[in-house]
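Good morning,

Both structures are done.
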Amino acid sequence: MTGVLVLAALAFPAAHPQETPRSASSRDLTGVWTNANVTPVSRPRGVDRLVVTEEEARRMAASAPILGFPRNPADHVDYVDPDAPAPEKGSTDFGVKGYNSFWLATGDSLARVKGTYRTSNIVDPPDGQIPHRDAAAVARRARLAGMKFITGDDPYEGPEALGLAERCLIGFSGASGPGMFTPVYNNNYQFVLTQSHLMIHSEMVHDARIIPIHADRQEARGAHRPASIRPWLGDSVGWWEGDTLVVETMNLHPLQASEGQIPLSPQGRITERFLRWADDEIFYSFTVEDAQTYTRPWTVENSFRPQSELFEYACHEGNYAMPGILAGARRKERAQAGRAE
């Protein structure tokens, strides 16, 4: 497992009794955390409230699908014949169902944020939906992404034809941010806070964000790198506003900006906020601002809760998909060359 340099966290003064955070150390973010929950990003159809009672939350969580998979799929099988022939071209028996509910681990409860159970991560707009400027384009993008998983539908001549998740380039499911969503499994993080930096290690694909903390917003924004520099996970800078650590990110890598969980134009920005709300909770929110992609800014709220330890995620270990796909493409090329001769 990728090693993480553990830095000593500074001791911060305790919050005053009248302050909102109920943590003994309101600026202490260091620790191992999880954001596991089954609350969807957008509010489901037929649900008109953001906050529900504990009993309602229990009922909703018990029946909530994960990525569209039912909790107990009727067609689940435990064994696949290794000697069976390859599926027919265009079939969906494996490709679209590469995961079933057995492999998914997003938790058993709706998100509990500041003591309330939430039906969506999105809190603004009030309807709980992402305000896409071009909804038709988003639907086409989702459809094309799904088609890539249908057997034989894509030539896959080179690794670049595969998506970010299949290539294990950055954490998928929106795990690593900016704008951290709950991963479909292995939703474990390590935060290390010092006086000058916050490090966020996402165990999903071993991403590490190292965010410099500046004296104030003006200094932080002045420290952004040139727009021509667009790294994975973007260019992030941070500053304190009271007990809230604010992190602003711009200039995502072009592939992440176009294929990631939060499409973003070169002019877009994502602003995250971290607040140690209680001993067992970091209140986390982020706002997406991008007039080219969305009709208005939109905001997500979630919480991180203590986790016992990190569990190793080895994205490519024992994974034969990449060599198998590329070997198939080379075999196809040889067959085509033979016919041409």
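Second structure follows.
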Amino acid sequence: MMAKPHICFVAPDTWPVLADDRRIPSAGGAQVQQSLLAKKLAKRGYRVSMICLDYGQPDQITVEGVTVFKCHAPIQGLPVLRFFHPRLTGLWSALRRVDADIYYQRAACAQTGVIALFAKTYHRRFVYAAACDLDVARDQTWQLFQRRAGWRDRQLFQLGLTLADDIVAQHAGQSRDCHRWYGRVPTIVPSCYADPPQKRAGRNGLVLWVSALRTGKRPELFLELARRLPHLSFRMVGGPSAEADGESFFLRIKEEAANIPNVEFVGFVPFADIDKHFDSARIFVNTSAFEGFPNTFLQSWSRGVPTVSFTDTGSTLDGKSVVTAATDLDDMTRLVARLMSDDDDWQETARLVRRCYEAAHTPDAALAIYEQVFANHPTPGPLVDLPAHSEASATH
């Protein structure tokens, strides 16, 4: 019987979620998924490591069976040069120190290409998991890389996607795009969420919006929705994003929300404290221009909270669409008003989303597929040091 492989999650921003470190305002969907999967795999007897940024935590500290290796600090080094050192050199060094059988990474970034090159150099396996529909839609991926040096980072990401040994998609739409643009047929693994104990949607709850406040999430549309439905209670939860103008955008939305009487603006909430807000919701609203498979949908569905959204995950059950999809703001206004006033419609939709969660989105359902992805990968031999010039060329 083949031994279970050593799996390393390359997840730089995930330490705050993994360790419940509330000092650091970070709680993205990819971080939540990687933290949950890493801990669950460790409980199943896998050796699990994770590479994270250096937030001041000890190196090689173990959290619920997951050994965390540090690469570099979030802001370290000189502009332009820091892309090479300490970021690439720090990542490459951490990859070598971990010496895993399989490296797993989620979400589009330049690191995807670096990890893929490392895996090819040292004969390791690399699994890439899409976190957004645009990751695998090559004609639209540029929208994820609009910051400085975006072209360079996008080329490295697409190189990594091409070299990956396995690709994981969240739903059938991503699978079709990956095959169309990269000629690859990924394994579909639905995102998962741990079932909240004895927590269910409340008939008398409010309209909830949760996300980082970035332009692509379009929080201003949620505020306009609240203006159109002044008799309902709305709550917005989310902190500044890492975008160049993230702080100023956050302050603008906060100021706008303060002038709408039926909106409660909460700001950033650590992931460990977010459940109480979903427990207070009757419906959840998503206004993003694009998504992958939002964790917020699963946080809602696991409680029986219907979701009204401009983006549709394609989820169906018994021939019925699980997402209550809106075509525009007028349509969303109508759908929200109906679900907030029609108890029969709300109860039927609440049962549907809860059943969908139970059928496809529990951690056990996701792990059953991931274990197939990770299985049958021959365990490589010891990592052999390369000549110094070879490693230098690979990191650059």
